[in-house]
Design a protein that fits this description.
- The structure is a single chain.
- The protein has 100 residues and is mainly beta.
- The protein is built from no helices and nine strands.
- The chain has strands at residues 2-6, 8-13, 19-23, 29-34, 44-54, 60-69, 75-81, 86-90, 93-97.
Length: 100
């Protein structure tokens, strides 16, 4: 499996109406392998990217993208976490694809 990321995300700061754009190329993704100690065949892989945005009023917000592969080799779920002070208008496209 491999992660494909494309597009851009657009967030609005609720307090000011400021629009902030993040491009997929701005994200650095990390991969974490979580091993189930009770069943070594049930490994979970988590793909994660974090990005901190700075508003014109010098307020910082951290956005976190997560995608889970569980069991290994199967897409499980994904989510984008952003603070309540932001509205997601558009999200980056990120998905898992088989190498076959």
């Amino acid at each position: 499996m491999y992660l494909e990321v494309k597009g851009r995300a657009e967030f609005e700061v609720k307090e000011t109406g400021e629009i902030i754009t993040i491009h997929s190329s701005d994200l650095d993704w990390n991969t974490y392998n979580i091993i189930d100690k009770n069943n070594s065949n049930d490994n979970e892989i988590v793909y994660q990217a974090e990005f901190e945005i700075q508003t014109k009023k010098n307020t910082s917000f951290k956005i976190i993208w997560n995608l889970w592969e569980y069991p290994e080799g199967c897409y499980n779920q994904k989510e984008t976490n952003c603070p309540n002070e932001l509205i997601i208008h558009q999200d980056i496209e990120y998905n898992l694809f088989s190498e076959v």
